[in-house]
Amino acid sequence: MLKSKIKTGVLASSVTGMAVSMIIFPQESLDASIRGLNMWWEIVFPSLLPFFVVSELLIGFGVVKFIGVLLEPLMRPLFRVPGVGGFVWAMSMASGTPSGAKLTARLRQEGQITKIEAERLVSFTNASSPIFIFGAVAVGFFHNAQLGVLIAIAHYLGLITVGLVMRFYGKSETPKKQDKKKRITIGDAFAALHNSRIKDDRPVGQLLGDAVMSSIQTLLMIGGFIIIFSVINKLLFLLGATAFLAGFIEYLLSLIGLDKSLSMATISGLFEITMGSQMASQVQEVTLLQQAIITSFFLGFSGFSIQAQVASLLSQTDIRFQPFFLARILHGFTAGIYALLLWEPIYLRLLQNEQPSNAMPVMNRIYEEGTKLADFHSSMAQVGPLITIGFLALYVIIYYKRMPTK
Description:
This protein is an all-alpha fold.
């Protein structure tokens, strides 16, 4: 009872403090809110919406069930999840966070995976997309497309490592015996696809409308989290909380051999990966290797903003958030370790034609044009608002037509 009361007091005082801070710093709060809105408006919404809609259609038409049957012999031994986990894994790496959590929650709601399997699956399907790693981080912040190769390899290897570690989570659960004995064929997969489609008897028009409605509702929620955490991050800086935490972060960075000047970027990266990665790229007192390590940690940890988005998606099911959070810590550290281990063999020897100094200042790095993912990321910022407006209008139309008439 006492613990519950303390929690109530902490939550109430935190929200009150935030409200008072917004009153004290109205202009700064507005600027931070606009920054978060622009990020969602230009990049997040138009880049994630197609993946969300297509994923919903693939689930409704039974294609995910088809893929799940075929991938069962691979996913079950490696990660102790059903074959449908392979679809979630692939879509999460293509579209980025938090699509893995959304699809996992969807599969759990349909009963295609158990609670423990869902907690395993969501732990290693939280990936940053290649578009974000190469377009925004490597080229946009570091002006170094080759660095994106190192960060991407470290990020996805860390993700696989998390999946292999999390396979030991929930040992009490016994695997299905028939999965080991029965040989999977294309006919079995197609039969599962057909049965899944028949079971979901919604017409194509309704299925498409439901996919659009569900996807846009999720993206509206994601936009809210992006905006509010952008404001929180700014308020913490204005109130001096960031400077207060800097001393503790500097001590932790020194323990793992990183420069103390990365402390402010680390604090920002713990809350929001985009801001943290950008700040890390602007610290000129450290080597490029240290910047790559700390940025890899940010992408693996995902930041409290994305974690809050995932927590909101998982709250619609019985999937617990704690395993996901512990997996993010593991992913952050493993990705940073991989970046360190692969720095010489991948970045220096394989990607660099010359013998570069790892102390090269950020501003002296040559901007490499022609990177397709970077070009796509840049063009998305230009056409993204038009896509967002169009689909929001479509959402309003569908919502209006589905309103019950009196």
